[in-house]
Amino acid sequence: MKNKYTITMWLPLILIVLVELYLAGFITLKYEQNNKNVMRNVESIRASYWGTWYVGKELSQLEAQIKKSIYLNKQDNEGLLEKLDFLIVSYEFLALDVKISPLLQRYAVNVLQENIDKLDEVTQQVLLKEQPINHYPDILAIVEQLKLGHDNVVFFELKGSDLNIFTDEVNRNQQVLLYIIYTALFMVTVLITVWLVTYLNFKRTQKQSNMDELTQLPNRKHCMELITVKIQKKKQLCCLFIDLNGFKQVNDTLGHHAGDEVLKTISKRVSYSIGDEDIFARIGGDEFVLILCDYGHDLNVQSIVERIIKQIQLPMYIDGEAVNVGCAIGISFLSKDVDTVNKLFLTADSAMYVAKGLKEGNSSNYQYY
User: Fold this and answer.
1) pLDDT in tens, 70-83
2) C-alpha distances in angstroms, 70 versus 132, 178, 291?
3) Which residues are in the GGDEF domain (predicted)?
4) What digits encode the pLDDT tens for the residues 169-178?
5) Which domains, ranges and CATH numbers included, belong to the chain?
6) Torsion sign over Cα 358, 359, 364, 369
7) Ramachandran region, residue 361 (left: φ > 0; alpha: ψ -120 to 50; beta: rest)
């Protein structure tokens, strides 16, 4: 009984712990994945920042180069082409590199691509003319348009100086969230454990108060409760009061442990011989009560009683000794006059004492009330 209770109590707790570990592992995995996504986004923002910074830097240098050439009235085709190449490379990094935020890439292409193409085309045409320096202002005008577009791109993205603050804030929020989740899981585990232990203790105490400890049959109190329910349901009931003959002799000659084995053996034999709706209980000492439910005809009761007597009279072997006991059975029926549990017990008990007076040795007898 104790081992069965221990298994019943700990098995649900083990299952709860396993579920908690699974949830904790799942949440930790999701946290790590989310953290990787956050860091990937941070790197994308950082790359986007440096991409726009390089484009702006090349635009400023190209603008300065053109203004210098105009001011000195000196053409610098080689320097112009070099700066233009750097600008194109920087733009391609911003518009095509996988590290750049896709949203920023699309915006940069929409804002800058047209003027980049126009700048490349105009620059090549200007450089082919005899006096290209006279057309540098045309290139300068396109560069000014690119700078305006670049300012819009810069405004569109996060500043690089905000990245560390952003990263720390995200990590801090996620750590707080994890702490809350783990605390909630722990509290749920504690509450479920307390409830489960309390419930199992209650069920064990309830069962112990209703059952006979030796035979695991219902005791007198619980038996009367079960019969009351049957009476309320208008069941056809027959009460058999069973008292063992020769039981005292077993206790006196072989000891009380042998008597206990006799009681347990008879409890099992009779339990196997009755229906699922029937009630078999030990009400004290060597006395038992058997309630037959919906037994049909009275002749069926006689057949059942004779079968019970045969089961009780079968030899039992205890410590190598053959033990035989008999029984006296009093039989009473639920009727208009016998309509309560107490009356059913009293009438069956009276009939049992009559049968007891008819015994010879360990013989068995039964008597109707």
Assistant:
1) 777 777 777 777 78
2) 11, 63, 120
3) 235-369
4) 566 666 766 7
5) 2-164 (1.20.120), 220-368 (3.30.70.270)
6) positive
7) left
In the numeric block, which tokens belong to residue 50? Answer: 């440096």
Mean pLDDT of 313-317: 92
**Torsion 190-191-196-201 (CA) sign:** positive
pLDDT digits (tens, 9 = 90+) for 225-269: 999 999 998 889 999 999 999 898 998 888 889 999 999 999 999
pTM, two decimals, is 0.52
Q: What are phi and psi of 331, to 5 degrees?
A: -120, 130
d(CA 75, CA 66): 9
CA dist., res. 246 & res. 286, Å (int): 10
Q: Which two tokens stand for residue 76?
A: 């610098």
What is the distance, to the nearest Å, from the Cα of residue 316 to the centroid of all Cα atoms in its chain? 50
Look up tokens 């860091």; give the residue: 39
